[in-house]
Write a structure and sequence with these properties.
Growth Hormone, Chain: A; 14 helices; mainly alpha; single chain; 418 residues
């Protein structure tokens, strides 16, 4: 009988917050995500490629794929495990906040170790430490939405996660570029930015205690609930598939932009061009993120926004396949930014409405976070194979577009959310 219920029915009324969150809470939440994304994406877009090109120039593409692939494999285990542990945590600082604080501390240590690494294997190990810290912080932060934010505000608050994503790339790249692209100094300044951005949320936010049925009785019960959810609740499974496919398509389309500008378009100033392209992407992403989240809350609809945004990303990839040039890259940046911005804010709200078990919110969101983090980490490895074996950047962008369309189809299969 339980397996036949729609996924959204699994959360009883007493398990859902009804008190709206205020502007101060939203600003602090957005600020910590700004630091998280800057520390994650500036290295992926610039520092790691430059560092690996310096320590192992012959195998830089392979090394970049392996470094990120290792972090992606770790995410498959760490995100659900950290989420389940977060659901079970008891502390005087709350169960979510303690994971955020500990994760940020681990993240900072990993960034500093990565900056000091002198070989590609050392870079891989240090970056793994940084990513594990990020996964721990994500476990607490994403669960906070399901815990403390009412459903009719979740599109807007989810925009506070992904709106800062594009801004974080620009802030991170701007700081690193201002330092001349030196990896050691770049990682250090990102670590400082992360701490400054995280402190207001960690020090001032007070989370709600467990409602309704409370915490899972054991860690094993939490993990079991997490992993059986996709099989028992089809909407949860379709939401996971859609998120995985769209994020994989986006990651394939953006991860190798520096190498695409350098080796594909052969622009005169690849690093400066990357910053310009990122700024274009930023404007489109921020506008679509907040606009999509607010409109989705007001209309009460999620699926149509998510599917339409995925199609926009596919169109961006088509532009790069049909007419690869610097002007077309700028057009693709606008389309990709608008599509990804609208997708991320509305998809996060949709995901919180298909969680089956109110006792295992962080664990179930941990599985969903795999669909965000694993594509970012595994895309470089897959992209390197496509570039080397299947025909270069044109084929890569075609594959990216195909994945985003499949993601839109998956979202359309969800039935319990409009």
């Amino acid at each position: 009988m339980e397996a036949s219920l729609p996924a959204a029915v699994g959360r009883a009324a007493g398990d859902v917050s009804t008190a709206p969150v205020g502007r101060g809470w939203t600003v602090r939440f957005a600020l910590i995500w700004l630091g998280v994304w800057a520390a994650q994406l500036a290295p992926v877009q610039l520092l790691l490629p430059l560092q690996l090109a310096d320590v192992d120039p012959v195998h830089k593409v392979r090394d970049f794929g392996l470094v990120n692939g290792l972090a992606g494999l770790a995410a498959l285990v760490a995100l659900p495990l950290f989420g389940a542990l977060c659901d079970r945590t008891r502390s005087r600082w709350g169960r979510r906040r303690v994971w955020v604080a500990g994760g940020i501390a681990g993240y900072v240590v990993g960034l500093l170790l990565t900056g000091a690494a002198g070989s590609w294997t050392a870079v891989a190990g240090a970056w793994l430490v940084a990513q594990l810290g990020m996964y721990a912080a994500m476990a607490g932060l994403t669960a906070t939405i399901a815990d403390d934010v009412p459903p009719d505000q979740r599109g807007t608050i989810s925009a506070a996660i992904y709106g800062p994503q594009a801004l974080g790339i620009v802030v991170g790249l701007g700081l690193v570029t201002a330092l001349g692209g030196a990896p050691g100094a770049g990682y250090a300044v990102l670590a400082v930015l992360l701490v400054v951005a995280a402190l207001p949320w960690v020090l001032r936010t007070r989370e709600a205690g467990p409602r309704g049925t409370g915490r899972p009785r054991t860690l094993a019960a939490a993990l079991r609930s997490t992993w059986v959810a996709p099989g028992r609740h089809p909407d949860y499974a379709w939401a996971f598939a859609g998120r995985l496919l769209v994020n994989l398509g986006n990651a394939l389309g953006t991860t190798y932009l520096l190498y695409f500008l350098t080796d594909g378009l052969r622009v005169a100033d690849p690093e400066g061009s990357l910053l310009i392209l990122t700024l274009v992407y930023l404007v489109a992403t921020v506008a679509a993120t907040w606009g999509g989240g607010v409109l989705s809350d007001r209309t009460g609809r999620r699926r149509v926004f998510v599917a339409g945004a995925a199609v926009l990303q596919a169109l961006a990839c088509t532009v790069l396949v049909v007419a690869p040039s610097w002007p077309s890259a700028l057009v693709a940046g606008i389309l990709l930014g608008a599509g990804y911005g609208a997708y991320t804010s509305v998809d996060q709200a949709l995901v919180t409405q298909v969680l089956p078990d109110p006792q295992a919110v962080a664990g179930e969101l941990g599985v969903m976070n795999v669909a965000v983090v694993a594509p970012q980490a595994l895309a470089p490895l897959l992209a390197s194979l496509v570039i080397a074996e299947l025909g270069g950047y044109g084929v890569l962008f075609a594959v990216a577009g195909m994945f985003t369309v499949l993601g839109a189809v998956s979202v359309a299969r969800i039935r319990s959310v409009r």
